[in-house]
Design brief:
It contains 24 helices and 15 strands. By secondary structure, the protein is α/β, with parallel strands linked by helices. Helix 4 packs parallel to helix 8 and helix 21 packs antiparallel against helix 22. The longest helix is centred in the N-terminal third of the chain and has 50 residues.
Length: 773
Amino acid sequence: MLRQASQLGPISRQTLIVRVASIVALLRSVLVFGFIVAAVLCVGEVLLRILDFSALRISGNSSVVLNGGDAVQPDAQLGWSQIPNVVTQSTTGNRSVSVRHNSLGLREKELNEDAPAGTFVFLGDSMVWGLDAEVGERFTDLLQHELPQHRMVNAGVLGFGTDQELLLVQKLWNRLMPRVVVLTFSNDNDRDDNTSSFRYQTNYKPYFVQVAEGEWQIRGYPLPPPTRAYARGNPWVENFALARAAVLAWTALRYNELIVPDPTEDLVEMLRRTTQARGAVLVVGLQRRDAKLEAYLQSRKVPYVTLEDAPRYQLAGGHWTPDGNRLVANRYRGLFEKAGILSALAQPPDLSALAERNGRAVAEVAARVDRAGVSRAELTAASNELEPIRAALHAVAANNESGQSPQSAAAVQRASLLAVEADRLAGRIAELRGELSGTSPWMPSASVLSPALWLGAAAALPTALERLVGQGRFWIAAVHDGGGPWRGTAVLLVLTVLYFVIGIAWLWWRQRIIAAGKGDAYFAKTLSSIRGFLRIALTLPIAVIIVGEALEVHMFEISRSVYIGTVVAAFGQAVAFAVLAPEARWRRLIGADDRTARVLALDLSAAAISLGWFFILLGMCRAVAAPAVLPTAIDMLFVIVVAGIGLHALLLTRPAAGGQRVWRWHHASAVRVAGWACLALMVLALVAGYGGLAARLAAFLVSLVAAIGAIYLLYAVGKVLYVDRYAPNGPREAVLAGNFGLGEGWLWLGEGLTTGAIVVGIALTAFVLIVRP
């Protein structure tokens, strides 16, 4: 016993020394790693400070956007607004001008006095606000001097688009009560403003999208904070450029810019309806000629003038010089006289006539709604026409001031009754639209054999393609302006390098697996199948999503549809080539000959790709608010493709001449019967005009087959790992470890990675099914 105790002493001391040495080595490695990380961070900080990117600079006011000095602040409704009662300076490469805002945040004097001959409200961006122009030099100030009996209100806001200007005039209407609204359209950037949710690399804004034919919605709320607001309140972000770059990258990924189809003409139409319903007149000035917008203005008989020859500065956005502002003032005054606006304003506003006119309009809308067989498109048009009338009636009803004449008081009372009637009619229209929502697959459309369906789709296609191309053009411009091509190229290069590195590592791992020797062939092919599944299912979707996010600009409905379609197509192809293994018989998981496996794999892959394109095309239709006939035609084309693929698979698996099946599979007869039944249902649905129902059935069948294949693959892996257990330290353990490319003592790592992948895959699938993308 004493001898054994004496022998334990030196062994324990030696073990302790080894452990201490291991801890010291670990600490040394941690310190070296920390030093390398610190050095990299320091180099990155120095480089960012030397390059001095404008996006990473901290200005005196983190809320400042554009060139308005300290005059602009974030706004929860408009995106940004001008700070009320501010006094500052605006400096550009041309000149410095003084800035003073009134209590409404407008670059105007206080608007306390009434206008005896009516108020003109001028909407626009910095061209109207007067960048590079002093107060007194702007065309609105010149018009005020020439027409002193009228009140000229400059409501221009730096960087605004037509959508924000529409929201602004609705917000200020009851305060200003204009009789003329003048929209100055800046061709240089207004269409870009109207198609984007993020402008000037600083501020987010609301945007209008067409969700159905003639139906518009305002999106973007709640608006994210400006990108420069992140720099306030955090000393790390304030003092380190690297921290600012990291936070800026995170905000860019979290709040991507969204590009929508150009709604400019529709926004002007909304503005026209708003002004007309409230008894005002809309006038438009174009910075330069615009054939599309001019054609709209002529069709609606909206007075307009072009201002392309007004002199402009060469720097800082090319705003009008003092001479340019004088020319613009003369053009507008000439337009007012030519259109008879000045003479019409000599008469006081007639509230009784306004109430009666809107009352007749409400009655006409109600008559159209009461008509039998009214369609959803007609209800949408009625709702669009009724909305500005309702707002106008409520505005007149709210004008209940003391000291009114009996005629005005009667008009206010009449407007109050009409406003209640208009509200009731709006609720009824909403109920009818809900009943005719057209999203149910049980609602029939034209038969697949109907020529009218295909002729209607062909007629709707050019307009949809034009809107789609326009949206793509604005998306490309936004990506280019935001530096997206450089980021996308860099990310693509990094992904390519990673792909080759992983491929080299895989080849090395595969050599280890082959060198592991003979053994469990079933586990070897199962593991090889799941590796092939992950390679096909993840490579393309990861590349598409990461590159798409690196561009930091999304296309409304299209980007998400492309992501979904890519994932669906890659998943179906991965299942087909992992389970059926058409080119690698040794790892095929089901009993099928080479020809059958190859054809079935191609069929499933083609069906999955068709389903992916189906999602993408439907997303494009939603993005451009295509007429209902176009999605219906896409539904039917998708069903025809899937039906053809299903017919090919069923004919392939029919019994041979001698009664021998080409494809041996248990319960194959039941599967064939179910397949023929589904094929017959799809054909009958197409002929009967239930294209939406047939498309849902086809999408369900493709998804079901792919899901069954994935479940079978998981079953094969789980069977080996958790059912066919192996003896510890036995020969089978060595073979399994060799299949993983690991030593016997590290087999648990291979099992853990496989189990983790299965759990993560199931969790992500459940998340997508429950939350939905």
